[in-house]
Design a protein that fits this description.
About 75% of the residues lie in helices and about 0% in strands. It is mostly helical.
Length: about 400
């Protein structure tokens, strides 16, 4: 936790120092590659994180028979709540349109939407795009919908292996996952250096008004997360348990504060498990299945952020007007990408490139500057969306436990 606080202070210092250097030093452009390299490192991790995280999240379920009942309930809950969160982000961003308040000069005016944006022409076409004819070709080309689909199928197939074969492959998968997470965590630790370069690049392109103009984007994300946390999730909880949500928030307050302070669902997992078992009174069987899976695949706050963030970027870029099918592609990709989001600080920032890539915006000129500005203000948003993620996990555990006949808060 102390390391995370130190990094937050370092990022704030990098923002301030970047402004000062960009304004006062004529040759400050020599530091711009720091930001460009940082963005490239983030993009480098997109495919490995998604592919390995989904396979590990699904494939390492201890009892494959649970997929027929307990697993089906769990995955259905996670998909539904993530879809609700994404819908909130979609509606709010289209209503508030925070991108129109963002100041960014020197963007190319000749962006051809037909040459940049890619989206299926129909729902059937989307299904065709999801199923890869060659999974390896999809990985090489970064076709995220196909990669996510193949990883899901791969993970489910592992749960059907014999116990002996499954035990032989799980250590390999977990070792790969730990290695990918180590690299990702190392790259994220470079954030202060990357932010320093990105802020200098932003000031060179748009002057000093770029960070203040991102305030409406922050407000949009905050409102969306608070609506999901204090309205949508409590309504779902009460609908399926007939218990006051206040009981649950009181029982989970330690885990919620831990999530807020660490910005990590994985780091909060032990506290979440303890609160759910000791305070909510969910059985070890249910909590042991639902919560570890949720820490990997249930990211309501991240899903909302990814959808709203991509729409925000699209609103800034000249000549980009997303059609219904393109927005549907963003919704669908954000839903699937949230499954592969790692439970570590700022992982959502890595995942947003997945959704950008799904509509062909990841390599458009100016996107790296916008993402850099988003990173500069990401810490408080990351703290709140992690709290949303963990609260959704715990509510899911309580709802599923109730459906299994368990007595809660007893």
């Amino acid at each position: 936790m102390n390391i995370l606080k130190q990094q937050y202070i370092q990022i704030l210092c990098a923002i301030f120092l970047g402004f000062i250097v960009a304004i006062s030093f004529d040759q400050s452009s020599i530091f711009i590659p720091f930001g460009d390299i940082f963005i490239r490192l983030l993009k480098m991790m997109i495919v490995p994180i998604v592919f390995i995280s989904i396979i590990v999240g699904i494939g390492t379920i201890s009892d494959s028979t649970n997929l027929s009942r307990l697993g089906l309930k769990t995955l259905l809950y996670y998909l539904c709540t993530s879809l609700f969160a994404i819908t909130i982000g979609l509606l709010l961003t289209n209503f508030i349109r925070p991108g129109e308040y963002f100041s960014l000069d020197n963007l190319p005016n000749d962006i051809n939407p037909q040459g940049v944006l890619s989206a299926p022409s129909s729902f059937v076409d989307m299904i065709y795009r999801i199923i890869p004819t060659n999974p390896f070709n999809a990985i090489v080309n970064g076709d995220m919908l196909s990669i996510i689909f193949f990883a899901l199928i791969f993970g489910i197939s592992i749960t059907q292996l014999s116990t002996e074969r499954k035990k032989s492959i799980e250590p390999i998968l977990l070792s790969l996952y730990d290695s990918i997470m180590f690299i990702t965590a190392f790259i994220i630790r470079l954030a202060p250096i990357g932010v320093f370069g990105l802020i200098i690049k932003a000031v060179h392109n748009s002057g000093t008004g770029i960070i203040p103009s991102i305030g409406m984007y922050m407000l949009t994300i905050f409102i969306g997360l608070l609506i999901h946390l204090f309205i949508v999730l409590p309504l779902i909880f009460y609908m399926f348990t007939s218990i006051s949500p206040l009981f649950h928030f009181k029982a989970m307050r330690n885990a919620m504060m831990m999530a807020f302070s660490t910005s990590s669902s994985s780091a909060t997992l032990p506290v979440t498990m303890s609160c759910v078992r000791d305070n909510v009174k969910v059985s070890k069987t249910t909590s042991g299945f639902v919560l570890p899976l949720g820490a990997t695949v249930n990211m309501d706050g991240t899903a909302l952020y990814e959808c709203a963030g991509v729409l925000f970027i699209a609103q800034i870029l000249p000549g980009i007007d997303l059609t219904f099918m393109q927005q549907l592609t963003i919704v669908f990709t954000a839903l699937l990408a949230s499954i592969g989001a790692a439970g570590i600080p700022s992982a959502g920032l890595v995942m947003i490139f997945i959704v950008l890539q799904s509509v062909g915006l990841s390599n458009v000129a100016g996107v790296d500057i916008i993402v850099g500005a988003m990173l500069a203000v990401d810490r408080p948003l990351d703290m709140l969306r992690t709290m949303v993620n963990v609260t959704s996990d715990s509510i899911g555990a309580a709802i599923i436990a109730k459906s299994e006949g368990e007595n809660l808060y007893d």
